[in-house]
Protein 1
Amino acid sequence: MAFLYESHRQRVLLQSGGAAQALAHEVQRRGAQRVMVIAAGTQAPTAAQITAGLPVVLRWDEVVMHVPLQVAQRARAAAGACDADLLISVGGGSSTGLAKAVALSTGLPIVSVPTTYAGSEATNVWGLTEGASKTTGVAEVVLPQCVIYDASLTTSLPVATSVASGLNALAHCIDSMWAPNRNPVADALAAEGIAAITAGLPEIVADPAGLRGRERALTAAYLAAVAFASAGSGLHHKICHVLGGRYNLPHAQTHAVILPYVLAFNGSVAHGAERRIAGALGAGSALAGIAALYEALDAPRALRQLGFPPDAVAEAAAALLPFVPPSNPRPVTVEDLRRLLAAACEGADPGVLQETVTITREPR
Ligand code: NAD
C-alpha cells in the first residue's frame, strides 16, 4: 500500500446566522483595510448586508459561470485600481471562481462565503474559459484562506438548484473513490460526505427554509471538495468538464445527470468503492441507493433536457476519449463513451452500462 495525502491550511467556520460577525472578525484579525467584495448580481443584496460596516472599497457583481477570461481581466484591473488588500466572495462556485481568478494574478487572499454546494471554496483549483475551451490549474494562492458557511444565506437557493448543486457535491465524493490520486483519507471524507448529502438533500426538499438540511449540505460540500481536491479528477469530472465547456451546459445539473452512468460503469469493477458508496448511501448497492435518492429528489436525468444536442453523441465521445484518466478502474473505449452519453442523453436506465466486464487491472 502506498498513498500521498496533502492537507491544505484553511480556517473553516459553520455558523448559521453568523456570517456578518465572522466576516468582521476575519477582516479585523487580518488588519485588512481595503476589501473588494465579489458577488453575483443575485447575491449582491446578501453580500451588502453581511459586509455592511467593513472597509469595502469595491463591490463587483459581474460574475459569469466558468469565469470567461475577459471578465477575469476586468475584475483583476479593478482590484488593482482600487488597491484592494482582501477579496471576499459571496455566492456559488461562479463567484468563488472569479475571486480565484483575481487571486491567481494578484496574490490577494480570499475569504469565501459560499451559498451553493459546489465546493470550490475548499479546493486550490482555478478555472478560466476562453471561447469553448476551459483551462483549469492548481495553485495554492487561489485556495481561500478562510471559509464561512452560513446556512441562513442558502435558504433562498431554489429547491431544484439546491438538489443539482448537492448532487454536484455527491459527484465529488463518488468520483474521488477512483480518481488518480485516490487515498484512504479522501475515501473517508468522501464516505462521510455521501452520508451527509444523502441526509441533507431530502430535508431541503421537505423544508427548503429549514436550516438543518442546509447545514448538512454545506458540511457535505466541504467534505466532498476536500476529498476531490486530494484525489483529483476521475472519469466523471473529465466527462462533465469537456461537456460543460464544449456544449455550454449548466455545471451542477450536468454533474447530476452524468453521475449515475459513471457509477454504473465503474462500479461494476471497482468493488471496494462500490461497497463504500453503497454503505454511505445506506443501500444494498450503490446504484440502487442513487436511484432511490434521485427518485426522492426528482433529480435531473437527461442531458438533452439541459441543451445537449442528441446528434452530438458520437463527436462528444471522440472528444472525451483523450481525457479519460489512465488510472480509471475500467478501461474505456470510444464505444463505451458513446453508449454512456447516449444513455445519459435520454435519461435511460444506467444499469445498461453495468454488464460484467473482463478487466485488465486489479479492481479497487
Ligand atoms: P453558480 O455560482 O453559477 O450558482 C448557480 C445559480 O445560483 C446562479 O444563478 C447564482 O446566482 C444562484 N445562487 C447562488 N447562491 C444562491 C442563493 N443562496 N440563493 C439564490 N440563488 C443563488 O453555480 P455553482 O454550481 O455554485 O458553481 C459552478 C461554477 O463553479 C462552475 O464554473 C464550476 O466550474 C465551478 N466550480 C469550481 C470548483 C473548483 O474546485 N474550482 C468546484 C466546483 C465548481
Protein 2
Amino acid sequence: MYTKIKTTAEIVAMRTSGDMLAQVLSVVSQLVKPGVSTQFLSDSAEKELRALGGEPAFLNYQGFPEALCVSVNDEVVHGIPRNSTILEDGDIVSMDFGVRFEGMITDSAVSVIAGKADAKDEALLQATKKSLHRGIAQLKDGVRVGDIAHAIEKELTKAGYGIVRELVGHGVGHHVHEEPNIPNYGKAGTGPILKAGMTIAIEPMATRGDYRVEIDSDGWTVRTKDRSRSAHFEHTVLITDDGAEILTQLAN
Ligand code: MG
Ligand code: MG
C-alpha cells in the first residue's frame, strides 16, 4: 500500500507516537551494559511505553514474539530478545522499536555498544548514523527515492562498509510497512517521487564486511553471512515542503 499524505490529525498522533518512541529508546539505551539480557531490554521498553500510553507495534506483528527487536554484533535486524542472551563487553546492540498511538505508527532504531567499545565498531556506528542523516537531508516535496538511497550509499561506501540490500526503509504510518521501499543504495534522480505530508522510515544497515545476509533457523534473526559486525539506525520522518521533520527524536 503506497504511503498516503497524512492529515493534520494523523501527523499530530505520529508526533506523539514518535516522541514516546524516542523516550523509550533513550531509556533502554542507558540500560545496555555487560551482564544484561536482551529480554530485559525488551521488557523494559514495553513497560516504559505502556506507562507513556503507547502500544508496542512490533509485538505479534507477523508473529514477532516480543516488543523490541534486539540484534547483537553480526545480527543485523529482527533479533528476538531472550533471557539466555546476555550482553558482553564490547557488544554492538541494535534495538528497533515500533510504537502505535491513536492508530498511527512510528518506527526507529539505534545501535549502542555495551561497555567498552572497539574503535572500529564505534566508527561503524558513527558512519551508519551519519548516512541516515545524509538521507534525511535530501528530503523535501518532490524528492525521489533514489536521491535518498544514493546519499546513504555514498556515505557508507566512502567509509568502506557493506550496505545490506535485502532490507530497506519504507513508508510508515497506518501500517508498519507501506510502499514505497526506500533502499540504502541506488541512483540519484530515479525511483518514486515523494510528496510533502508523506511519512517514511529511513534505515541504513551497514556492516564491517560484506553486504550479504541470511536468516537464522528461528525464522527471524537476520545475520551477516560473513559474520561481520553490523549497525542499524532508523528514524521516521515527515516530508515537508522544503525539508523534513524527524518524528522519532527527543524534543529539545
Ligand atoms: Mg524499525
Ligand atoms: Mg523500519
